[in-house]
Design a protein that fits this description.
Distance between the termini: 19 Å
Order of helices and strands: EHEEHEHEHHEHEHEHEHEHEHEHEHHH
Number of strands: 13
Structural class: alpha/beta
Largest sheet: 7 strands, parallel
Strand content: 15-25%
Number of helices: 15
CATH architecture of the largest domain: 3-Layer(aba) Sandwich
Strand order of the largest sheet: 3-2-1-4-5-6-7
Helix content: 40-55%
Radius of gyration: 21 Å
Shape: globular
CATH topology of the largest domain: Rossmann fold
Length: 379
């Protein structure tokens, strides 16, 4: 029997982020007969730990401090010497390259980039973070990224944006996120439980899913909802947690729409909420890809999304499998929402086209492309 290829996947934690969920989708679908797989996390606490499949080793480095992580991960690499390291998220990617250099091991590195880096300063919450995003991160990216054996970008837009920082390297590949997996549809059919009453009022339910951060531009959605409510009585449910939660709740009160908006927090199974909703809306100023667009499509509901720099327009064919609107334009967003809620035949037509489009973003397809990449860099 051939020796198994030893692959380690590095993530900051196992909280409910899209990047972490992607890693779990990939590792759960890799052939365990060919690979010895480990997920290495700064801290293993988080809602996604329960989703990790059998046969996958989970390692906690026991810290979240970036400098400490570099040295703990260096020690891990020196001890375990994986054949391949797959890292995800910009700061973790830089950390991975530092740790490999310090460890002096022959491990091949694949970096997964989810972010349109040029837009990071505009969505940072503080001056310090804006300064870091504009000046410090690009320096480290230019220094470390070219040394990786491969850089996987989750969309063509992200790849183009990254090429503007480090040049058009041959190591840059585009592999779309693995979204639709084997148990996806069974999860979408699970009962709603205590939140079922939102869907029994007779009002259309608009749903938004994602971390409550500036990049998602929820204020744009709330202002659009205020306009929609002038003619259509709808209810918005928002799934997710994050630093902007209190600000958003204050905005809801200021707009006088508190009876029409509910914050439900993080849900380990958002698919059952999507499947029971009338419309999914993504209002982001910045996306890398937009997993939740595909998830909503696969659940059979129509999608309205902002045409931000990368992601949505690579998933949605405008007017056919969804509707794209300009970023930060509440009037255009409100118009698209109203258009779908007012026209059941249009809603059904977009839903059917979206469900078909979602099949393209299967876990099987993505994993097949990653396995081809593994073979390529190990030659």
């Amino acid at each position: 029997m051939d020796k198994k290829i030893k692959i380690s996947f590095l993530v900051p934690s196992l909280k409910g982020g899209g990047a972490e969920r992607n890693i779990i989708n990939i590792t759960n679908s890799l052939g365990k007969g060919r690979y010895q797989i480990s997920i290495v996390a700064g801290n293993i606490g988080g809602d996604l730990k329960q989703d990790i499949g059998t046969g996958i080793n989970v390692v906690s480095l026991g810290c979240s401090n970036v400098l400490a992580l570099v040295f703990r991960f260096r020690a891990y690499l020196k001890k375990e010497k994986p054949d391949i390291l797959v890292s995800s998220l910009t700061h973790i990617n830089i950390l991975s390259m530092m740790a490999r250099t310090l460890a002096g091991v022959p491990t091949k590195v694949i970096l997964i980039e989810h972010t349109t880096l040029s837009l990071l300063p505009a969505t940072a919450r503080t001056f310090g973070r804006r300064f870091t995003a504009k000046f410090i991160l690009p320096y480290f990216i230019k220094f470390f990224y070219p040394s990786a054996e491969a850089i996987v970008c989750v969309s063509k837009g992200v790849a183009d944006d990254l090429s503007g920082v480090i040049g058009n390297l041959k190591t840059i590949k585009v592999i779309y996120n693995p979204v639709v997996q084997e148990n996806f549809y069974s999860k979408a059919k699970e009962p709603l439980g205590e939140d079922e009453h939102f869907f029994k009022t007779g009002k259309p339910v608009i749903i938004a899913v994602g971390r409550l951060i500036r990049a998602k531009d929820y204020p744009n959605l709330l202002k659009a909802l205020k306009i929609v409510l002038q003619n259509i009585q709808a209810h918005l449910i928002i799934l997710g947690e994050g630093p902007e939660e209190e600000n958003l709740k204050k905005m809801v009160l200021a707009l006088g729409i508190e009876k029409n908006v509910s914050f439900l927090g993080f849900k380990p199974n958002p698919y059952k909420y999507l499947a029971n909703s009338s419309l999914f809306v993504l209002s982001s100023f910045r996306e890398g890809f937009g997993n939740v667009i595909v998830e909503a499509m696969a659940c059979g509901i129509p999608v309205v999304a902002t045409d931000c720099k990368s992601g949505p327009n690579e998933i949605i064919e405008n007017g056919k499998s969804g509707i794209l609107v300009p970023v930060q334009n509440e009037q255009a967003l409100a118009s698209a929402i109203s258009k779908i809620l007012d026209d059941p035949s249009l809603s059904q037509k977009i839903s059917e086209a979206g469900r078909e489009r979602a099949k393209y973003f299967s876990v099987e397809k993505s994993v097949r492309e990653y396995e081809n990449l593994f073979r390529e860099i190990l030659r």
